[in-house]
Amino acid sequence: MGPWKEGAVRPLTTFDRERKDMAKKYIVGVTSCIVGIAHTYMAADALKRAIEAAGCEAKVETQGADGSENAITEEDLARADAAIIAADLKIKGLERFEPVPYISCPTEEVIKDAPSVVAELLEAIG
């Protein structure tokens, strides 16, 4: 059990900090285009693949012609390290991302070069 009393909070050690740094980052995203069909889903696929290729966990919500799919929940936002909003119009529920660091860009940018968008986000959050 160690020198700490039961129920006491143990101070973070260097090992704890290094372990947290090694944990996979959880990145959430939202994609939405004007028509809500092709670009919404193409951007979502590219974004998810690029986030996972960067060694992070990913969840991407689409706001398309059929409404929201794979919705980002409060639990997702609570554990999210950051978010990427790839949209060509204002997304529904943007205010829910206020406590999470995020970047936004057009869907076309993610479709053409999602790895660069993800790299920019990861560099910004450290």
From TrEMBL:
<dbReference type="InterPro" id="IPR003353">
    <property type="entry name" value="PTS_IIB_fruc"/>
</dbReference>
<protein>
    <submittedName>
        <fullName>PTS fructose transporter subunit IIB</fullName>
    </submittedName>
</protein>
<keyword id="KW-0812">Transmembrane</keyword>
<dbReference type="InterPro" id="IPR013011">
    <property type="entry name" value="PTS_EIIB_2"/>
</dbReference>
<keyword id="KW-0808">Transferase</keyword>
<keyword id="KW-0418">Kinase</keyword>
<dbReference type="GO" id="GO:0022877">
    <property type="term" value="F:protein-N(PI)-phosphohistidine-fructose phosphotransferase system transporter activity"/>
</dbReference>
<dbReference type="InterPro" id="IPR036095">
    <property type="entry name" value="PTS_EIIB-like_sf"/>
</dbReference>
<keyword id="KW-0813">Transport</keyword>
<keyword id="KW-0598">Phosphotransferase system</keyword>
<dbReference type="GO" id="GO:0090563">
    <property type="term" value="F:protein-phosphocysteine-sugar phosphotransferase activity"/>
</dbReference>
<feature type="domain" description="PTS EIIB type-2">
    <location>
        <begin position="27"/>
        <end position="123"/>
    </location>
</feature>
<dbReference type="GO" id="GO:0016301">
    <property type="term" value="F:kinase activity"/>
</dbReference>
<keyword id="KW-0472">Membrane</keyword>
<dbReference type="GO" id="GO:0005886">
    <property type="term" value="C:plasma membrane"/>
</dbReference>
<keyword id="KW-0597">Phosphoprotein</keyword>
<dbReference type="Pfam" id="PF02302">
    <property type="entry name" value="PTS_IIB"/>
</dbReference>
<dbReference type="GO" id="GO:0009401">
    <property type="term" value="P:phosphoenolpyruvate-dependent sugar phosphotransferase system"/>
</dbReference>
<feature type="transmembrane region" description="Helical">
    <location>
        <begin position="26"/>
        <end position="44"/>
    </location>
</feature>
<dbReference type="InterPro" id="IPR003501">
    <property type="entry name" value="PTS_EIIB_2/3"/>
</dbReference>
<keyword id="KW-0762">Sugar transport</keyword>
<keyword id="KW-1133">Transmembrane helix</keyword>
<dbReference type="InterPro" id="IPR050864">
    <property type="entry name" value="Bacterial_PTS_Sugar_Transport"/>
</dbReference>
